[in-house]
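Example (one chain per record):
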Amino acid sequence: MKRTTIVLITSLITNLFLSISKIIVGIWGRSQALVADGAHSFSDLATDLVALFGNKMATRPADMEHPFGHGRVEYITSMFIAVTIIGLGFTLIKDSFLSPHSQPDQKVLWLVVLTIILKLLVSLMLIHIGKKDKNQILVSSGKESLMDVLSSCVVFVAIFLSQFQDRYSIFAYADRIGGVFVGILILIMGITLLKENISILIGQRELDPVMVEKIVRAIATLPLSSEVHDVVLIKYGPYYRANIAIRMDDEKTLHEYHHDSNLIKTHLMEQFATIQYIDIQVNQKK
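Predicted structure:
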């Protein structure tokens, strides 16, 4: 089983446990904020399932209709996650305004603390492995889980302050204010993720200077009769398509051009597992 799948299943199981626990304890402890936070965790659970499906589709090999593979399914999946986050944000804001005043049982604070610790560990794991493996699905899922951590922190503060509403009447609104704040945070995160994935889906150039520099250095070690003019990386989910422009003198033959092109392609495919497609463009030296 691939590491990505293992990580997503771990996140899924964690979200299942936390969402059920939050809703049950929230109802028992009379905490509207905790019940809403449980619904948020259920959205994490749903997006983990979608992420598993998207990751499986993104790793399918190329075919006649999709000559560059199915990697961009990853971004469509991430966009679905982003839309889900946006919808959740609007729902939480609406529900927070409509929820009645309540004074939650202070015992529910212990569950919120446990939730924060578990979700923080899972979130950091998803983001770390996602960035390491260049997997946008894991990064998106990790960022959403991080929003669950922030929302749980707000819920903790709201429940804590609500304990003092008998002494300070303004704290009777703690649950509502906390819910609205969480909804706004989730809304911002969803819009940001949607914007990022739309940009990548329509062909955004990879701007990682470290990766580009590694490719340039790798090509520089080859005995070429031409020189590299430009390197453009386009992300296709877990892998790259590299467009490389080289310059050649007029007196160079077509055979030499093909030799250099094949040498570059073979070397880069051997050196970089994340580069699966390479296009070579030849330009005349001025």
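Caption: Residues 130 and 138 are 5 Å apart (CA to CA).
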